[in-house]
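Case study.
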Amino acid sequence: MLVIATSDKGGTGRSVTSCNVAYRRALQGSDVCYLDFDFGSPTSGAIFSIDPVSRGTEGGGLHSYLQGKIAEPQRIDVWRQTDRETLRSRPPGAGRLVLLPGDQGGGEFSMTKDILQRCTKLFVRLLEEFDLCVVDLSAGRSYAAELVLAATAQQELRGVPHRWLVFHRWTRQHVIAASGLVYGRRGLIEAGAERGHDSQVLADSIRFVRTAVVNPDSEELAGLRPTQVVWLLDCNKDLQELARQHQLGRTMVLATIPLDPVLQMREQLISDRDVWASQIANAATVAAFDQLARRIADDAAWDEL
Amino acid sequence: MHDGKWHWGGRDPSNSVSDAEQLLCIMYPASAVASFKLDIPDATADDVLDALSNLGDAVEVPRLLVRVITSYLRTYTDENGASLFSGGSYFHSDEPGREPTADQANLDVVDSFSMSVSLMLATIGFARVFRTTVRREDLRAEIDEMEALASRRLTAAMVGLLRSFTVKVFPPDSPAGRTLINTVNQGDAPPRIVVADLQRALREVRAGIRDFTIGSGRTTELDNPNRLFECGWAWGVVKDAPEIATDDIGPQPQGVAQPDPYLYFTVNALDGIADLFSERTTVLGLLSEEQVRLAQALRLRWELTQSYWATIGSFGQERWPLEDLPWRTTDEKESDYFSLLVTSMVVQDLHRRRATDSDLRRVGEILEELAERGRITRRATHEDQAIRLHEPGVGLSLDGSEELGGPRLRWQVSDYAAVVLKRALKVAGMARSTELRDTMTALVDDVWAHVLRRRIPSGDAQNLWDSPRNVFTAIDAKDDHQAPSWYFTERIVECLVEAANLISGSPLRSSRLAAIALDLLNEAEHLFDDELLSSSSEVGPAMRDSLLHTQASLVRAREVLSTRPGTAFVLAGEVLRELDRLTVARREATGAT
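After joint prediction, the assembly is written out as follows.
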């Protein structure tokens, strides 16, 4: 299955969430690969704590491959090459976790027929090898997004399930922006239809992920003044109504990721050890990642009303 | 829910009444409380979802309801397409040693008509809204099917209610006549005068009944002006009730019930019928044209019946017959429960007439006394007869049920506490003075404390009702109170809905308090202006903050003066104190003290 992660605005926690979901999914036993399609700023290496590729690779990444400079993009086995000791060595029962980094200093490029063909070929090959391919796009409308939309509409990839996750923070601006990215002019659905997608089918394969959500009921907020809590609850209600009007209400949401100090300060994978041994991360965050990782492939969660 | 499967039935095995009650425990609040919104998954309240998490998430719950309601509708439709309103396991035998026959268990009962009216209206409204959020064809087809079945059952239930209404006519010197005269004659007037007064008071009701064109209860005997009468609902379809020409709802069953009105079934029918012309029903346009016609006919009976019982219950210039506890029915049965039922109708009638607080206060006092006599707000002695009101409840013999062979049937009613609670809430909601509101709220609190203790303490049905043994220790421990009584639980849910609507309204406004608040506010504003005038424009940050804060309080106080005079009062008070501090400080400075 192909999962494409995107967002309208930057700073939504798209990359760090999708990396964590790939990691969780691998822990759950699937073979997972992660494609860094954020060509302007390919930094997923940093999230996986793989220092040599923390700003993209110099050894022939996805840019070079798509532009036809090399025959195969570089692959990095995260279990083996991560710098974090707690993540190294694959836990028993876990699947493969492979990173396909972008090129350092690669930059955006426009789509040509050849690039499209190479991209499609890559997806087909990876989908044969892996259970789940996570494609992390950059924020906003990008050539990479056009490319993926076009590739998934190709004959070779028809019939392969592909699902879109649109990340947004739980604020008015982000809600409106995310809605625009999907339903607006030149949004995903309109652009997809131009590339040959059935707009209804495409719409059905899009879900939203709310990130850095402040839960007014949570224990962490016990220190707030009552007036602040009342205000927060009301804001939350307003936002829910706004989200509903913009067609990203509850039924369109696949997961809600709570605000977490670790994710705020340092974008990294959250291991079970961070929760239980050092207790720097919240259990609720990991639970949300875990749940998202399961729901991605759970058909019932994608069922239409 | 058990293992993802819905379980019907509770203390009594599944039957058309109990199953409707079970569904109404969710559907009634879902249709009557605005924040529920089960029909719009994107807008369902979070706490509602938390409470229903056992049934699934925001998307699964409405889909489950569609499936379960459809299954209810299919179960209670026979092969000829007729809707079944059978009492089933709620029927008991009135003759020891003989069990009800299968034919008897299939008899239709007014409780089922009434519950079905409420449930079907809730269902149709739910279907209309939920359908708009659904795009999938198969799901839409399911919803449409549910709505069609529900609409058909609604028509059938209305026809059932029209065919079980009855008017009993009797001469003043019959036993029934004498009892009625004794009841209404609370002074010492000669019977002849009482009859004449009563006839005069009931003139309109009598005329209304003579205008009936469809259904049961039509009679020529009322043309004789010397006869007395009673009207209301029998326990089921009345014997020889004519069929009603309407849309196809399948064969209409023959009635067997004796044409005698029962207070219990009358109150029940009235409650169900009231939903037919609620604001929601009208706004959402839930009724078809044919149903509107039937609803009109029912409304006429609803108004006449309420008016009749209110007239009887509060007859005369002196003590109301209702205040003479316990009530005595014309078939010479006495119980506080009957007083309670008549009170219910009087409350409804007062509501309809927008009565004054003085009438309401009298009803409130009766409710207080009934709560005491029912040992809700008083402790019961060990062999207290009042306990029997709650467990096993009052038994009503269903006259005419024996005609199908088998024993005469009995209907057991044990909702005494729930009825007291519901009517007390109603009166509290109607009160205009704070004193009456306060008295009634206190009664509601007491009854609620009693009801809360009667929840089932453990097991699957934990926190559902009803386990009267928790309160009345004299009740035999062998009675099984592990399974939920949907009968009682549904009635408590109705009370909770009533309470929710009462609380979400705005608080009572006391005109006295508003006048005082206005005076205070005037003084505060005047002093504040004076302060502004006398202090120089360069006052420093501390003073500026204080003045800004004071001004904000004054603005806020003006804003809420008419809606929340108490709040305005306190805000003005704070301002006055703040300003006084400044004044005192100044006097210190000038050495005036």
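Observations recorded in class. The mean pLDDT of chain A is 89. The CA atoms of residues 221 and 247 of chain A lie 29 Å apart. We will return to this complex in the next lecture.
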